[in-house]
Design a protein that fits this description.
Distance between the termini: 15 Å
Shape: globular
Number of domains: 1
Helix content: 25-40%
Number of helices: 2
Order of helices and strands: EHEEHE
Structural class: alpha+beta
Length: about 90
């Protein structure tokens, strides 16, 4: 059964959108795609200081082993993270 890693990070709401997207496209997304069991991911921004990503993996073990690489030292401050079972997808 698929499992998702959900991570919320603190973002500067005034930061440059193009720079954030370049970091995601050049570093974060390729690294996430290279993790074992990667299926798909979404990176979202609420516009007021919180970024949320949801990354789906094949198994709970794949998701659990992905948390550390997805929350590296030097990255944005992590507000919360967790692993969730994907019960329904449309």
């Amino acid at each position: 059964m698929a499992h998702a890693v959900v991570i919320q990070v603190k973002l500067d709401p005034n930061s440059d959108v193009e720079h954030r997207h370049a970091v995601l496209n050049d570093y974060v997304i390729p690294e996430a795609k290279a993790l074992p069991g990667f299926q798909k991911g979404m990176w979202m921004n609420d516009g007021v200081g919180t970024g949320t990503c949801i990354i789906v993996f094949d198994t709970e073990d794949d998701a659990a082993s992905a948390v550390a690489p997805l929350t590296p030292a030097g990255g944005p401050p992590v507000i919360a993270s967790g692993i969730h079972v994907v019960e329904v997808e449309v």
